[in-house]
Amino acid sequence: MICEILCVGTEILLGDIINTDAAFIARELASLGFASYHQSVVGDNPARLRAAIDEGLRRSDVLIITGGLGPTCDDITKIAAAEAFGRGMHTDLDVKRDLEEFFAKIGRPMTENNLQQAEVPDGATIFYNKWGTAPGIALDGEIDGKMKYAILLPGPPSECEPMFVECAEPYLRKFSPHTIYSLNLHLYGIGESGAEAILRPMMEEAVNPTIAPYACEHEVRIRVTAFADTLDEAKVLCRQTADKIYETDVAPYIYTETDTPDDAKNAVVLAMIAELRKHGMTFASAESCTAGMIAARVGDIAGASDVLLGGIVSYANSVKENVLGVPADVLRDYGAVSEQCAGYMAEGARRVTGADIAVSVTGIAGPGGGTPEKPVGTVCFGIADKRGTETFTVHFNGKNDRSKIRRLTVARAMMTVIRRLGT
Amino acid sequence: MICEILCVGTEILLGDIINTDAAFIARELASLGFASYHQSVVGDNPARLRAAIDEGLRRSDVLIITGGLGPTCDDITKIAAAEAFGRGMHTDLDVKRDLEEFFAKIGRPMTENNLQQAEVPDGATIFYNKWGTAPGIALDGEIDGKMKYAILLPGPPSECEPMFVECAEPYLRKFSPHTIYSLNLHLYGIGESGAEAILRPMMEEAVNPTIAPYACEHEVRIRVTAFADTLDEAKVLCRQTADKIYETDVAPYIYTETDTPDDAKNAVVLAMIAELRKHGMTFASAESCTAGMIAARVGDIAGASDVLLGGIVSYANSVKENVLGVPADVLRDYGAVSEQCAGYMAEGARRVTGADIAVSVTGIAGPGGGTPEKPVGTVCFGIADKRGTETFTVHFNGKNDRSKIRRLTVARAMMTVIRRLGT
Lengths: 423, 423
Hints:
The structure is a homodimer of 423-residue chains.
Chain A: E1 2-8, H1 10-13, H2 20-32, E2 35-42, H3 46-59, E3 62-66, H4 77-84, E4 89-91, H5 93-106, E5 119-121, E6 125-127, E7 136-143, E8 146-153, H6 157-173, E9 179-187, H7 192-205, E10 210-215, E11 220-228, H8 231-245, E12 254-258, H9 261-265, H10 267-278, E13 283-287, H11 293-299, E14 308-314, H12 317-322, H13 328-334, H14 339-353, E15 357-363, E16 378-385, E17 388-395, H15 402-422
Parallel strand pairs in A: 1-2, 1-3, 3-8, 13-14, 13-15
Antiparallel strand pairs in A: 4-5, 6-7, 7-8, 9-11, 9-12, 10-11, 15-16, 16-17
């Protein structure tokens, strides 16, 4: 079965939003074992949308369409898809009732155009939308003598992603001949080319599982991917290959493993939380340039309250001094971006929150504020626990933008906790 | 002139990377005044790539192709594009010399396959690449009796983006008859369908500028887009239309305006910072469920240090009590998720940081932790300034995931500051 993705939205054609729906769905399709040879984007124009649907259904078996399902007159995807399958439209009473209940609950009048969302193609499978108001839709039928399938999902990623996983995947799974499983090994402190140079002989020999290095912003991932008849078999294959990777020179850089895209994205924070739990320790942060990003990333993880006590965002020097207890003469003599200050910040966060371990960051994220001695990208770190306090300075590449320097700082702070607890 | 974008890369089809090239180029094309009705992605397959090039050149005047220009055997874009224009290939000696110099400089032997990057279509315009090794290429010629243009750029965003700006834009500018400008009106507290119901008569009449509502996670944007010969004329047209929108019933919901995608993304925090500056006030947060996201979002904005003093992340009750001074009996009698607690949190943040205004949030972001009286999505807010302290509770839809509830909470907290200062 060949799948392809069609995203509908003038805002994508104008570059106002980045098409993350396509990337998300592409990844999920790959993990289900479907081939995908095309992605496309069209705007809210009926003729061009219809032509794109016809073309997608001609060259692929399953066309996944996102966007254009909402209540406005620009939302024309359902009608175009129904036409492509030669279907009429009718009102789905369950969707209509859901809409009425939704507006009653939020206490806003339901305008007439909202009812458009309850119009569905005849013979369609309806995916009720728990994350928004527009339902998803699956259509199937013969076109030019071949069975074809279309799956329509809302455009906003906060609706598209969960609806793909909860509604479209179970629908698609029946067409999938085998299972793919991927295991990610996460490496910190080595580059992609360095990892690849070590693993190249293994990579070239690998058929199933395959081995692929993948450079992320702050780390390198080695993705081990196996095909098999069952998930358990695929997992065993991946485990055997991963064990061989642990026998190579990349082993000291591997800090954790994940096997879902969400966990991979959160690998550093999940690994830090796991280390804290293993040691039964609580955590706090003292943050200047990251302004709360470290604590917020821990709070992203449901159930982190057993380790996260809190943190102090000390953006202004007055807060460093008055809340965290950084001595005024340290700020005067060494400046806010100094290891001395970072050390007091970490100790202060540990003292005021009562956490077992605290990490601090204070730096220059740019684009302004750099000096010849402390250029943009200079970040001082501190870590304090019952064994004492340590500080160090990292010079991130100042050509990176503010937001990347801050994200790299967050990852480094968490890796510092992981390695402190792991040794 | 109609442009379209074709991105070549199996890694995009697999979802391994997000197609930021398309979004970047789309935005630049819009700002140059080009219409763009299609984007597509194909992999490193010669037949499918050639079919996609033919289709793009059939339906548009200018086809911008990214990716597949490198040294490996998968890099087939140049040959496919040359074939589409009926051209042969030759070695460009300047590119060859650049390659040799590049490898001499980095002290690595140049493998034979690198020379493939010096092969260019006959009659092509070459864009020398200062950011990598593969040159960009422009081709023009008659296809089926019409002049058509193709611009080929490397795939990595660090090469594609500067090469588009420095090489492709000057090449394209000669075709651009006019400029596009978009003004976004940001609305809070009204849904997309509600806004559209009010604006539909204007939307239907609008030709230039056009008016389009756009639902974002926490707000609705009305995008007013004008074409004109000059940027100034386009701005005047948008202003006139925006002024008419301010005469409708959506006016009370408009909280700010932006005119770049980056500012649009940050509209709430930029509007809050602007209000704080207007009043010469400093800001702090006290955050439980958001765990630092509010302060971090303010810190995202370069130069926010004139308003952001800092914040307290009080994830644990002990931090609410010991750092923010929430009385133990309030926590015991009303719980951490209560307006009483939120009020003390906001006052505590204001007191310990010395900020002029502080906002607090304490809630249940889920998925666990909900109770019948306080289901997932219940968030209590507090705001404290010299006029006193106010608190209120919002019940976000508990079906939303943790991360969305927290993002909605951040937006609501900032809107609370904007409206408190605006009244």
